[in-house]
Design goal:
By secondary structure, the chain is an alpha+beta fold. About 60% of the residues lie in helices and about 10% in strands.
């Protein structure tokens, strides 16, 4: 593998697992592709052997175990003081440039007026003075244009970082799915547009038992498996994690029955797998979920999300591992 292929392979791995390209993450994945027998590579393979994405927490744990220093860089998702200070500095630079240009313009205007008065009074040499003033102003304007160009380029880069930060603020860190905030914004936009949407609420069955019996790290891996399964089966439709073991799906332009069919396929795909605890090989058994699907345009005193939630509990009370839906 040459250097370009290695760089691409590392980048693809980081992107696939939702890991930010920090130096320590890069070093960990570099070991995976360069020396498959290294402790880091062996640990990463073990952590992803069951098809799970490598979480940042697991990555940091492995790095600590194998002696890779874990850094804490400012990520675009964190609107920290560095990013806010940079934004403030760019604004101040623009203000300073504009104020300087205004002062130059006032000075230029005063010089022109003085030159015009001298010409009107018949004083000699005024034309040459006006030419000198104009040339000086042209040079100052050129310098200001260069300053504005540099400031514009820096501001564009900052704008991209701020946009990334906005996206990260709408992302669930465990699953890399949109979070509740992103879901609520999307649903509000659909409702404002009067769009036809089927809203599904999905909840992992007996999740508390998994957490209590096997621990939260195993519970987190189960959540990521369910998240991946929903994401893989629901195509372009929004899948979001809204808290704990609960997810929502927004099926745009899809009737509830079709949304339920898609979720049934995801449910069957998940149910066909048999899970075990990575560290001990103890069997967890099947992981299943229940869901309720409601139609956004159905006439009702209750919002679609409340009706979907009621249908979810019907599915739970009906034996779990099933999807209930209402007619469009």
């Amino acid at each position: 593998m040459d250097s370009i292929q290695l760089y691409k392979a590392i980048g693809d791995f980081l992107a696939a697992h939702g890991l930010w390209p920090t130096p320590d993450n890069f070093a960990l994945v570099h070991a995976l592709f360069v020396n498959e027998a290294s402790p880091a590579a062996v640990a990463v393979k073990a952590a992803t052997a069951d098809g799970l994405r490598l979480s940042q927490r697991d990555a940091d744990r492995i790095k600590t175990e194998v002696g890779i220093e874990v850094s804490s860089p400012a990520r675009p998702g964190n609107l920290d003081t560095n990013l806010l200070a940079a934004a403030t500095q760019r604004v101040e630079e623009f203000v300073a440039i504009v104020e300087a240009q205004r002062a130059d313009a006032r000075s230029y205007g005063a010089d022109l007026q003085e030159g015009a008065d001298r010409l009107e009074a018949g004083e000699g040499g005024s034309i040459g003075a006006l030419v000198a003033v104009t040339r000086a102003m042209a040079e100052r304007t050129k310098a200001v244009e260069q300053q504005l160009t540099a400031a514009r380029d820096e501001t564009e880069a900052l704008r991209e970082k701020l946009a990334e930060a906005g996206e990260e603020a709408r992302c669930d860190p465990l699953t890399r799915l949109p979070n509740r905030r992103a879901f609520e914004e999307k649903l509000k936009a659909f409702e404002a547009a009067g769009a036809s949407v089927s809203l599904a609420i999905c909840d992992i069955d007996n999740f508390k038992r998994i957490n209590d019996q096997y621990g939260h790290p195993v519970g987190d891996r189960v959540i990521r498996v369910v998240a991946d399964t929903l994401r893989d089966n629901c195509g372009s439709n929004m899948v979001a994690r809204i808290g704990g073991e609960e997810f929502v799906v927004l099926f745009e332009g899809v009737p509830p029955a079709e949304g339920a069919r898609i979720l049934d396929e995801a449910r069957e795909s998940l149910g066909a797998r048999h899970f075990k605890v990575r560290e001990t090989d103890a069997p967890i058994g099947k992981v299943t979920f229940s869901a309720g699907v409601a139609f956004s345009l159905r006439k009702s005193d209750q919002p679609a999300i409340a009706r979907a939630d009621a249908l979810l509990y019907e599915a739970k009370n009906g034996g779990r591992n099933q999807v209930r839906f209402e007619a469009a």
